[in-house]
């Protein structure tokens, strides 16, 4: 199957060619015909599988065929970064068309506020907004949604996780009742269906292999005591074949401490978390995308939806609290069929959690031996047993191997 089989408007096909898209991904193959057919939809597929294009292409096609007046499509997304990224993709696809889009998100300065406000008042074909920011505009201004045809909730699961349910309902109340609703999500928790039943009477569902990391990701883990984590990380970062790296830690405080500590060891790292000003976050993201920053240390705010090409290493400095987050985090690498490495540090408190992850992904992640100079880590087993030394390189066919580490530079 190729994109030509959808009979999309030739201007869009030109855009696709320019972006180097040849074959639709599985979710695109399933979702695009249904969306063109005006169906309501819940579409569920793992991160990095091309969900953005799955909703943008049919919406743009519709715009080209039916012409546009006023706001045609509202896309709601959980974070600023994601909203900007969707906006950029829309610009890419619609390069050969007249379609207009704007992203409306928080942060920024007074000037941004004025720009967004004006853009909303004038209307654009497609508005991409974070719920909170859009609501703050709806309060004071009249936004004319009367010609709206499509409502899209991207990363719907994440928006619910972030407590946006009420905000979403508040926004949706202001939209015309007759509209097409599309929910895109990486996972399908029960509250997604609850939300769906509240906003649309009938809907189709397409789901593609939920919660499986992309095949191209080389997953590894180390059993480590907390004291071993930093020297282990330093050793890994010294491998310069990793040109673009994200290190995830579970809290802002951990991110800050780890960044400080890595800097002291001479690593050039930058931190990414919600305490940064919007403008800093954008600048940093640009630098990281442009490969001017090699290592980002961040919280899970980085883990969803951000699409940066060519990240070749993800390190989970600790095991993410939720198994789904593991899939999201490591989904930052190996996007759209490239390859990447994901390494997780597991301390003895996190073993149970990691077992939950292995259950979810239906795969045992190979446990590598720590470099000799770091000594032994905890064993990988659920509860204390007296039998043989626990599960190093347990199952999964991963033979344990050791990396070559040089002694840490002080
Ligand atoms: P998701 O929203 O499912 O996490 P994205 O829509 O962000 O995934 O897509 C991930 C990456 O794959 C993007 O860089 C996108 O440009 C690319 N991509 C999407 N669909 C295709 C395709 N059919 N062919 C080639 N690359 C694609
Ligand atoms: Mg997405």
What does this structure look like?
There is one protein chain. With 410 residues, the chain is α/β, with parallel strands linked by helices. It has 2 domains: 3-208, Rossmann fold, CATH 3.40.50; 217-409, Rossmann fold (3-Layer(aba) Sandwich), CATH 3.40.50.300. It contains 14 helices and 14 strands. It has helices spanning 10-19, 26-36, 51-66, 80-93, 110-122, 131-140, 156-161, 165-173, 190-199, 226-237, 252-264, 278-289, 323-330, 351-361; strands at residues 41-45, 73-76, 101-104, 126-129, 150-153, 180-185, 204-208, 217-223, 245-248, 269-272, 295-298, 313-316, 340-346, 367-368. The strands form 2 sheets. A 7-stranded parallel beta sheet has the order 3-4-2-5-6-1-7, sandwiched between helices. A 7-stranded parallel beta sheet has the order 10-11-9-12-13-8-14, with helices on both faces. The chain starts with 9 loop residues before the first helix and ends in a 42-residue tail after the last strand. 43% of the residues are buried. The structure holds adenosine-5'-diphosphate and magnesium ion. Adenosine-5'-diphosphate is lined by residues 21, 23-25, 28, 45, 47-53, 305, 307, 335-336.
Explain briefly what this protein structure is.
This protein is α/β, with parallel strands linked by helices. The site of adenosine-5'-diphosphate has 17 residues, from α3.
């Amino acid at each position: 199957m190729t994109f030509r089989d959808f009979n999309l408007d030739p201007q869009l096909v030109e855009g696709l060619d320019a972006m180097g898209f040849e074959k639709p991904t599985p979710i695109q193959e399933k979702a695009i015909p249904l969306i063109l057919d005006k169906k309501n939809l819940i579409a569920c597929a793992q991160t990095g599988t091309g969900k953005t294009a799955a909703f943008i292409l049919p919406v743009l096609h519709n715009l080209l065929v039916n012409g546009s007046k006023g706001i045609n499509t509202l896309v709601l997304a959980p974070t600023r970064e994601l909203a900007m990224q969707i906006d950029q993709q829309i610009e890419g696809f619609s390069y050969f068309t007249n379609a207009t889009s704007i992203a409306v998100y928080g942060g920024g300065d007074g000037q941004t506020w004025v720009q967004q406000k004006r853009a909303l008042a004038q209307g654009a074909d497609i508005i991409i907004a974070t719920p909170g920011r859009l609501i703050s505009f709806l309060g004071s201004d009249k936004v004319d949604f009367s010609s709206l045809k499509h409502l899209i909730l991207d990363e719907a699961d994440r928006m619910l996780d972030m407590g946006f349910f009420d905000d979403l309902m508040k926004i949706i109340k202001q939209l015309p009742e007759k509209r097409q609703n599309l929910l895109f999500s990486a996972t399908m928790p029960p509250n997604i269906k609850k939300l769906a039943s509240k906003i649309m009477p009938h809907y189709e569902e397409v789901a593609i292999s939920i919660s499986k990391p992309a095949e191209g990701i080389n997953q590894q883990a180390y059993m480590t005591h907390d004291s071993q984590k930093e020297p282990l990380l330093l050793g890994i970062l010294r491998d310069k074949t990793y040109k673009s790296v994200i290190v995830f830690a579970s809290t802002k405080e951990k991110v800050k401490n780890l960044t400080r500590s890595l800097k002291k060891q001479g690593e050039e790292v930058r931190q990414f978390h919600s305490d940064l000003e919007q403008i800093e976050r954008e600048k940093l993201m640009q630098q990281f995308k442009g490969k001017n920053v090699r290592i980002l240390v961040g919280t899970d705010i980085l883990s969803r939806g951000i699409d940066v090409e060519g990240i070749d290493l993800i390190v989970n400095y600790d095991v993410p609290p939720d198994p789904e987050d593991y899939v999201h985090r490591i989904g930052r690498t190996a996007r759209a069929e490239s390859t990447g490495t994901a390494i997780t540090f597991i301390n003895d408190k996190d073993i149970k959690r990691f077992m939950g992850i292995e259950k979810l992904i239906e795969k045992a992640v190979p446990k590598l031996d720590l470099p000799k100079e770091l000594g032994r880590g905890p064993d990988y087993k659920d509860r204390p047993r007296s039998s043989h030394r626990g599960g190093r390189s347990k199952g999964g066919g991963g033979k344990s191997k050791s990396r070559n580490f040089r002694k840490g530079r002080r």
